[in-house]
Amino acid sequence: MTPDPLPPVQRRRPGVLLALALLLPLSLLWGAASGAYYIPPLEIPRVLREGLEGASVLLSIRFPRVLLAALVGGTLALSGAVLQGLLRTPLVEPGLVGLGLGAAAGAVLWLAFFPLAAWGLPLAAAVGVLGVLFLLLRLVPEGSEQPGARLLLVGLLLSSVLSAFIGFLQFRVGDPQGRSLTFWTLGGLGGAGWELLTLTAPLALLSGLLLLGQSRALNALTLGEEEAYHLGIAVGPLKRRALLLVALGVGAVVGAAGNIAFVGLLVPWLLRALGGADHRFVLPAAWLLGASLTVLADLAARTLFTPSELPVGLLTTLVGGPLFLYLLVREGWRG
Amino acid sequence: MRPWLFAIPVLLSLALAQPFRVTDATGREVEVRSAERIVSVGGSISEILDKFGLSERIVGRDTGSYIPASLLKKPDVGLFFRLNAEAILAQRPTLILTVSEAGPPPVLAQLRQAGVSVVLVPDEPTPEGVKKKIRTIGAAVGQPGRAEELVRALERDLLALRSKTRVRRGEPLRVLYIYPRDPRNTFVCGEEASGAGLITLAGAQNAVKTVQGAGAVRGCVNLTAEAVVAARPEAIVVPFFPDQPFSFENILRLPGVAETPAGRNRRIVAMDVTYISGYGYTAGRAALELHQALYEKTGSVRINHPGFNP
After folding, report:
1. H or E segment at B230?
2. How far, in Å, CA of A116 to CA of B245, rounded?
3. DSSP code of B217?
4. CA A134 – CA A141 distance, rounded (Å)
């Protein structure tokens, strides 16, 4: 008895997941082993064990930064994949349709009123994301033609308005942490530390884990709302729940690292090309790949031009933007 | 060779090894365990360290520290407000001296966590502020005696300046301080900005007393062309950066400048940026030179830093 042969795409999935599960620790190690403060990579365990010079650089600066990069990238890619499933278009992602800047606007507003209450920042950012989501769904109603293109257009307009709004607020509001407009619009992980990580991780991980649990329901939704309803999925509550979780995740990571664009767009797209559109595969794989790529992008951002660092979103946009354009043209504006 | 001579290096190293305590600009009490390897952030701080004879101990500097010229060979750790923690720690400093506006704050926190003494040196742009700056640096590197010598030298310069400003009669000159940021905007600083402070010290008056309006950065703002004309400056003072090309023509082309008395008479004084806004130990001399350029010369004047000859 031989089992039914699976389609080749599905047969590839375990391999892809395994490769990604290996890629993440490798990227983390590479990221942790290199930086402006040079320590020979093979010496690192000894430096840590014996508490030599450089141990404090590793422990209080580099490790939290690498972990934060992974958390941010994973959350953004997963949120992108979920949004694409919910809105049934491959053209949306948090950074591009204004969600990231919504988060930034929420965070900056919070700073305007409570400059020293850092704990509220991720939540305020999440409220900002929800606000933008609400606007998007209002302005692009269900069943409009070419929802993807419309969402993109409306989202981009919202983005430019929001970034002007943030710039205007920063005109009037000082930030005790010295975050600039560039930080919000292009992202950066320079302020990473354990404090920021503990502030960000609970919300981001919670949102990620709960979203992973929605993969079956999202699969049903791709068949269409009607069919999902007949499969026993409560479509309305599912959407609301998933959007709320996305908002929490995106709010937390944008509050910590600004708006790093295109990770949430290209990662799910690449995975669907590799292993098909089943959310049970795409969601965990997106988290793993998004995390790895962001760790590597941040590594480039902080080592290419030592001692200064680039905003990491500059790199993701430089690589991601042209790729996205190519996709748009090649896919013939589907969605 | 007398035997007691051997005691000198021993005593010296003992003196260097003891921790110094210093209160920094934020009121924080900082313990400096060793001032052997210093990262100096801020041109005026580097200048003062050099004057103390400690330039060999500087293992890293910010982009704006170029005096003495030998500093240009030392590792550059970035701009003072965009510091990078790893690049600084890579120089294995034991002490980091920075201007109080250095940042971003999370990076300073990271440096403290890494166990390095970080001293934010007070730098109010006034003669008293300069003295405080010199004394704080002196305390941090264990050279209080040298600090007092420098303070006395500064007081002599200020006395020479006062003998000039006291005898001058008439309304003080109206001076506009322009910081050349980009060619399309006239970025002007009010009295409280560091470079502009030297104008009042030199016995002139700032044509825009205080900068009003949103978006003021450290007492400076983009002024509309009309506001530039309305300020009626009789002279313009601009900082220049030794590593960048500077032309008086570009200043005259800024919005509004050509229509002012200063623009019509080409009364522009360009001054080395560290000399005019660093408020190092040369502040007294700088104010004296600025006074002479404004009241005793005509046309466009360029003032170089006395300690900078690349």
Report:
1. helix B225-230
2. 42
3. B
4. 11
Which H helix or E strand runs over A312? helix A312-331
Find the CB nearest B104 among A60, A178, A307. Answer: A178
> pLDDT confidence of B282, banded at 50, 70, 90?
very high
Residue A55, min C-alpha distance to chain B (Å): 8
User: Beta partners for B120?
Assistant: B98
Residues 235-254 of A with CB under 8 A from B: none
Q: How far apart are CA A57 and CA B112, in angstroms?
A: 11
Query: For residue A307, is the peptide bond before it cis, meaning its omega torsion is within 30 degrees of 0?
Result: yes
Chain B: give the shortest CA distance to residue A195, in Å: 11
Written as six digits, the tokens of B121 are: 């040196």
CA gap B175, B170 in Å, rounded: 15
Q: What is the 8-class DSSP label of residue A50?
A: T
Residue of A37, A62, A111 for testing the chain B interface, max B β-carbons within 10 Å: A37
Q: Give the pLDDT of residue B3.
A: 57
**B104 contacts in A (CB within 8 Å)?**
177-179, 190-191
Average pLDDT, integer, range A119-142: 94
Binning pLDDT at 50, 70 and 90, where does residue B34 land? very high
CB A73 within 8 A of CB A295: yes
Q: Where are the beta strands (DSSP E) in B185-276?
A: 186-189, 205-206, 220-223, 235-240, 268-272
Closest CB to B76 among A38, A62, A307: A307
pLDDT of residue B213: 59
A57 closest CB neighbour out of B77, B89, B107:
B89
pLDDT at A182 over 80: yes
Q: Rounded to an integer, what distance in angstroms lies between the CA atom of residue A143 and that of residue A97?
A: 18
- Probe site for chain B from A189, A308, A312 (most B CB atoms < 10 A): A308
On chain A, the residues whose CB falls within 8 A of the CB of B84 are: 36, 190, 302, 306-309
Q: Closest approach of chain B CAs to the CA of A238, in angstroms?
A: 39
Q: d(Cα B160, Cα A320) in Å, to the nearest integer?
A: 62
pLDDT in tens, A283-297: 999 999 999 999 999
Is the pLDDT at A138 greater than 90, yes or no?
yes
Is B109 an interface residue toward A (CB < 8 Å)?
Answer: yes
**How many CA within 13 A on the CB side of residue A279?**
23
Count how many Cα atoms sit within 13 Å of the Cα of residue B206 in the half-sphere of its side chain. Answer: 23
